[in-house]
Amino acid sequence: MKITIDLIPDKTDTEITVSCSSLTPEIEKLLATLRILDRQLTVRYEDSVHLLDLSDIIYIEAVERSTFVYTADRVYESDFRLYELEQQLSDSGFFRISKSCLVRLKKIKSLKSDIDRKIRITMENGEQLIASRMYADELRCKLGVK
Description:
Blueprint: H1 25-37, E1 40-45, E2 48-53, E3 59-63, E4 66-70, E5 75-78, H2 82-89, E6 94-98, E7 101-104, E8 108-113, E9 119-123, E10 128-131, H3 133-143
Antiparallel strand pairs: 1-2, 3-4, 3-7, 4-5, 6-7, 8-9, 9-10
């Protein structure tokens, strides 16, 4: 793989061009990562690929070897692992609440203390999620709640 960077002082937009002989899974993953910088996530629904605005995502969940992205009206699948999305989305208002779940903080409707220092989270779509003890204190700090 060859990487070339052309610095053009007068250029106002950043343009990325990928030249390749075929669209391999590695290149598709690279393109999906670049789209996250543009505040979009590449996801799949049935047999089609969609570009989903990050602001539409309520939460992301890993189940077995799959990663699911939840919006108000649909559940999509992502090719990224949960830890990859956590790294890429941490500055976009997403926070890990358990080993298997990331939430968009702005989509939290309410919090309720649960047994064993866990937190029951109600999301704006009505879904209830549990923040594990390991992440509960940091979640409270992020939200400014004691």
